[in-house]
Amino acid sequence: MPKHSLKKKPMNRSLLLSLGAIIVVGLLMFTVGKVSQGNQSHVSATRSAKQTKKAKVAKLNAKIHLTKREKKIAAHYKLTKLETRTASKTSITAIGDSVMIDVKPDIKRVFHHSAVSGSVGRQFYSLPGIVRQLKARGHLAKYIVINLGINGPPTQHDINSVLKTVGKKRQIFWINTRVPRHWQNTTNRMIARNAKKHSNVHLVNWYKASKGHKGWYASDRVHLDLTGEKYYARTLAKRVSEVLN
């Protein structure tokens, strides 16, 4: 009986391509599913954390009984009991430019234990020296408020110098700026970047809070009127309470 060589038929090329496509699609769907699951878990965790925080704040608010002075402040600045009490009890050192001079009466009223230093034309480059002097004299509080930016942008070198002097145990509340100058966005980006990088630096977003409120500003669109000063202090108080509670 003659021997016949058995030859395997080559697999159809189109079939191979189809199988490859099915595998690729399957892998993609699996990856997308995992990413989606991860995102949903992150969203759920974030929502849960917010709900927990909200419940905690509500509980703290319910326990607070404001003094007559605090009730007036809460009503005038539209603050909750917790925000009012937190500001009233928190000692701060506030350093800024001419805007800080404008808002000084409001800040001292809301933050009962505060030392406020403002100066016309003050820029970021003067801040490292000011902070060093205050610390050397024992006048630098645990909580520091910085408002500088209408007269020019900061440099990272000056910011680093301030952070080094302040140290890790103090908290900085850095207020960004709204000013019709080309350095506005540069200043705000640098503040936001450092707030994201350093756990003891907290952005106070005045730029966002003042959006659409031209009436809060004087005719020069730099300094604030009485309404603007009130909301400036309110924005700071709310942020301080959010971080500390």
From TrEMBL:
Keywords of the record: Acyltransferase, Transferase
Molecular functions (GO terms): acyltransferase activity
Database matches in InterPro entries: SGNH_hydro_sf
Claim: Transferase is one of the keywords in the record: yes
Protein name: Acyltransferase
Organism: Lentilactobacillus parakefiri
